[in-house]
Amino acid sequence: MRTGSYLALLIHNHVHASTVLPPRELAQIKAVGAQLAALGRQLRVFGMTNNPAGSVALDLGEAITLVRREVESAREVTAAVVRHNLISWESDSEMSNA
User: Fold this and answer.
1) Alpha carbons 88 and 15: distance in angstroms, whole number
2) Is residue 85 classed exposed, middle or buried when 0-12, 13-18 and 19+ CB atoms within 10 A define those classes?
3) pLDDT band with cut points at 50, 70 and 90 for residue 48
4) pTM of the prediction?
5) What is the tally of structural domains in the chain?
6) Is-contact 19 86, C-beta < 8 A?
7) Which domain holds residue 39?
8) Is residue 15 part of a domain?
9) Rounded to whole angstroms, what are the CA distances from 98 to 85, 86, 91, 92, 94?
10) Residue 37 · residue 89 · CB < 8 Å
11) CA 47 to CA 67: how far, in whole Å?
């Protein structure tokens, strides 16, 4: 990120008391969100197609369910960061256009 862009972002965050991410970091967080969503889908498919018998099935099913919940929670937090960042930029640009 260029020095001028970084300084503009720093001043923006200070003046508006918001935390806006630089574009590169925002793109990386979006990519992580997409990867988490794909992992969640794969875990769902894995949990549906494999049905071993007995207590192993219960333990495995519980483990997959727990991991899916954690992955979904991480995906939601990641999406919230991206959403907050975009809303911050959009609200500030609307104010400057008024």
Assistant:
1) 12
2) buried
3) low
4) 0.57
5) 1
6) no
7) 23-97
8) no
9) 20, 18, 11, 10, 6
10) no
11) 11
